[in-house]
TrEMBL record:
Assembly and binders: Homotetramer.
Family statement: In the N-terminal section; belongs to the NnrE/AIBP family. In the C-terminal section; belongs to the NnrD/CARKD family.
EC number, UniProt record: 4.2.1.136, 5.1.99.6
Protein name: Bifunctional NAD(P)H-hydrate repair enzyme
Entry's Gene Ontology BP terms: metabolite repair; nicotinamide nucleotide metabolic process
InterPro entries per UniProt: Carbohydrate_kinase_pred_CS (IPR017953), CARKD (IPR000631), Nnr (IPR030677), Ribokinase-like (IPR029056), YjeF_N_dom (IPR004443), YjeF_N_dom_sf (IPR036652)
PROSITE patterns documented for this protein: YJEF_C_2, YJEF_C_3, YJEF_N
Residue numbers binding AMP: 403-407, 432
Domain YjeF N-terminal: 16-217
Domain YjeF C-terminal: 223-491
Species for this entry: Dyella soli
Length: 493
């Protein structure tokens, strides 16, 4: 399917409503016509994904999303499909009422969904309950309908937004429809690409409803989706000094694996040289496992100083610990004014001693670390990841990566990009250490903090998807190294 215009632009619900209103008021397109186009796009999607479907169930709410559903049901009936339509309680007004009347006038029956109703056998369910019109959890008979749809094991097409999912934030405060396909209208809603959305949206398709390009003029998106990228081909006269020197700092006793993963990831992502500053007890293991890493026993700031002088970029935190040793190295690294990537205990120490960065800096917290950095509950971080990542970038004057399903990257000027790749298999130890090394390597090769973070997150997630061929369970952080190398060189993984 050819990508729609603006398919990488993400908007808030308020922005999409403003675009909808502008299409009606400024462009003179009647609201009922927009509803008809939405229904036609969704019905075409249904036929494309389930061409053998002969009978569908359509579930309409009391707002405009319900109106979309009534018109889809009418189109399906006219195409010869069997249609069973249930409606939630509530009065319809305006275009939604016109859509219901059009369905009825063609002979369509409307069944009330109440406490006595039950699902009937169909080939596809169509969720037209709430769309963007609900930011709280469904309740009463609506909640019971959502539970029944999710338990039915029948495919579900969601019109615009799976009902119960917050289209602004991706949060799911209660029950929400688990769709196989979501057909989104006019503009992509940012909440469909982060937080809990991955468990509900299925395959997302955007339909701009044949609206003219002028509709989007002067309406900047709130965020954007990453697109596949790789690094340009190297100069034929490049040498190791041309590609930067990463110094990875960490590996308290018992945590050699974290700093080894970070260092090797930096090598695999193209850094010319990678040194490791770690505990003496780790040196033999590191040299044996990955001799290309230049491992140094560093027991305090004085031993770290000459390594800092030779480094281009610092990767600080994997396995660092929060004891006296880790704290001393962390302080020395921050005071060096070197470009750096902070992760793990590098972030936990920052939460204890906040610091506004003057040098290029990338912070890579998961929600728990972000909670400590912002001094707010994890639940509040996850309730609005866009607000949280922007707050992190602004507070520390850095580029912030908020990891998790639908990782977000924010600049302190307010820009945000969302990552559409990644999978649950990546929820395993060491993945963050690899990401830290990748971003540090991209910084060392001349990228600025913003582009290094965006490209690093994208390559890391795409490598994770490429490495998951044998299944999500059991995926190791080191499994990403082979596909990472291919992707960064512009090859298919």
């Amino acid at each position: 399917m050819k990508p729609m215009p603006h398919s990488h632009d993400l908007y808030t619900v308020a922005q999409v409503r403003a675009l909808d209103r502008r299409a009606i008021d400024a462009l003179g397109i009647p609201g009922f016509e927009l509803m008809r186009r939405a229904a036609a796009a969704a019905f075409a999607s249904l036929r494309r994904h389930w061409p053998d479907a002969m009978r569908i169930g359509v579930y309409c709410g009391p707002g405009n999303n319900g109106g979309d559903g009534y018109l889809l049901a009418a189109m399906a009936r006219d195409a010869g499909l069997g249609v069973v339509l249930f409606a939630l309680p509530g009065d319809l007004h305006g275009d939604a009422a016109l859509a219901r009347d059009a369905y009825r006038q063609g002979g369509g029956l409307v069944h009330d969904w109440d406490d006595a109703a039950f699902l009937v056998d169909v080939d596809v369910h169509v969720d037209a309950l709430y769309g963007t019109g609900l930011s709280r959890a469904p309740s009463g008979c609506a909640e019971r309908l959502v539970v029944a749809l999710n338990a039915s094991k029948t495919p579900v097409l969601a019109m615009d937004v799976p009902s119960g999912l917050n289209a602004d934030t991706g949060a799911c405060p209660g029950q929400a429809v688990m769709a196989d396909v979501t057909t989104s209208f006019i503009a992509a809603k940012r909440g469909l690409f982060t937080a809990q959305a991955a468990g509900y949206v299925g395959k997302i398709e955007l339909h701009t409803l044949s609206l003219p390009e002028s509709l989007w003029e002067g309406s900047a998106p709130d965020a954007t989706l990453m697109q596949p990228e790789s690094l340009p081909r190297r100069s034929r006269v490049a040498h190791k000094g041309s590609n930067g020197h990463v110094l990875a700092i960490g590996g308290e006793a018992g945590f050699a694996g974290a700093i080894r993963l970070c260092g090797e990831a930096a090598l695999r992502a193209g850094a010319g040289l990678v040194s490791v500053a770690t505990r003496e007890s780790n040196i033999v293991a590191l040299n044996a496992a990955r001799p290309e890493l230049m491992a140094h026993a560093v027991e305090g700031p004085q031993a770290l100083a000459p390594l800092l002088d030779r480094a281009t970029v610092l990767a600080v935190g994997p396995g660092l610990g929060k004891g006296a040793w880790g704290h001393a190295l962390w302080l020395t690294a921050l005071d060096s004014a070197q470009a750096l990537v902070l992760d793990a205990d590098g972030l936990n120490l920052l939460a204890d001693e906040p610091h506004e960065f003057q040098q290029p800096a990338v912070l890579t917290p998961h929600p728990g670390e972000a909670s400590r950095l912002l001094g707010m509950p994890v639940a509040d971080i996850e309730a609005d990841r866009f607000a949280a990542v922007r707050a992190l970038a602004a507070k520390y004057r850095a580029v912030a990566v908020l990891k998790g399903a639908g990782s977000l990257v924010a600049h302190h000027d307010g820009r945000v990009v969302a990552c559409p790749w990644g999978n649950p298999g990546m929820a395993s130890g060491g993945m963050g250490d690899v990401l830290t090394g990748v971003i540090a390597a991209l910084l060392a090769q001349g990228g600025d903090a913003w582009h290094a973070a965006c490209l690093g997150v994208a390559l890391h997630a795409r490598a994770g998807d490429a490495a998951v061929g044998d299944g999500e369970r059991g995926l190791l952080a080191s499994d990403l190294f082979v596909p990472l190398r291919r992707l960064i060189n512009g090859r298919e993984a």
